[in-house]
Write a structure and sequence with these properties.
Layout lengths: L1 H18 L10 H21 L3 E2 L2 E3 L2 E3 L8 E2 H13 L11
Antiparallel strand pairs: 1-4, 2-3
Helix pairs in contact: 1-2, 1-3, 2-3
Amino acid sequence: MEGFHSAMPAARRLLVELTGGAVVDAEANAAAYAAYQRAVCAAVDAFAEFGSGQVGGFSLGDFKVSQYVSDRVATGAEQATAAAVAELYGTGLAFCGVR
């Protein structure tokens, strides 16, 4: 539960960024509301598991290895974004405007 609560602010900021601050009415569009809630949970899960920094690698004392799986550096924020966008797909909530 502690990880969920500590990751919630980052997930909410991410969802506001992804949706352009869209407000979803549960009664007017139940499917979009459910997708939004799933997206929040997916982002929280990713932030709780990976944090917002680099994903992959290990450390042993002062020795650190990163990018041992592939050449692409992935961050927890990228993982959370991908998970949230996957849940928002098809709802029209993923903001496509100028940032």
